[in-house]
Design a protein that fits this description.
CATH class: Mainly Alpha
Distance between the termini: 65 Å
Strand content: under 5%
Order of helices and strands: HHHH
Radius of gyration: 24 Å
Shape: flat
Largest sheet: none
CATH architecture: Orthogonal Bundle
């Protein structure tokens, strides 16, 4: 029984490459135009996803597994980058109470000039930071609190 013909033609490859290029371009635009660290890291992730889509499309078009192997490598790097980014964001926010990258000009390389003050827009007033659990945000209740049983869960379990 003959196998069905492969329908992954040059037109389908072009469509995949256009979507991958669009993802990469949007990620680059977001990375270069934003100053918020979270948006910058999400934009970098979008650029990685656009590259991964292009590699998978090329692998499928040529009938090899190379694109999928490189995509697994890209996803591994993206997961590592996301964990490092989260740790960096938490540390930076705890030190300056803002995620604006222009506040971090003192850690740049010595030969890189500082961003001019005219490019920096007015910042919002930082919130008052208290040390301890009181500094965590307090959420409003979403509904009626259910009735609690008289016995606690630990007492019922034993």
């Amino acid at each position: 029984m003959p196998s069905p013909p492969d329908l992954f033609t040059m037109d389908v490859l072009r469509d995949y490459l256009l979507v991958g290029a669009a993802l990469f371009a949007l990620g680059m635009l977001g990375f270069l135009s934003r100053r918020n660290l979270i948006v910058m890291f999400l934009s970098a992730e979008m650029m990685l996803q656009g590259t991964a889509l292009s590699l998978v499309a090329f692998g499928r078009y040529h009938g090899t597994w190379t694109g999928q192997v490189f995509t697994i490598l890209i996803l591994t790097v993206a997961a590592c980058e996301a964990s490092i980014a989260l740790a960096l964001i938490v540390i930076l926010y705890n030190q300056r109470s803002s995620l604006d990258v222009t506040l971090w000009q003192d850690i740049r390389e010595p030969n890189v000039p500082a961003t001019p003050a005219s490019d920096v827009t007015e910042e919002a007033e930082p919130i008052e930071v208290m040390i301890g659990p009181e500094s965590y945000p307090h959420l409003t209740p979403a509904g009626v609190e259910p009735a609690h049983p008289v016995q606690s869960w630990i007492e019922r379990r034993s």
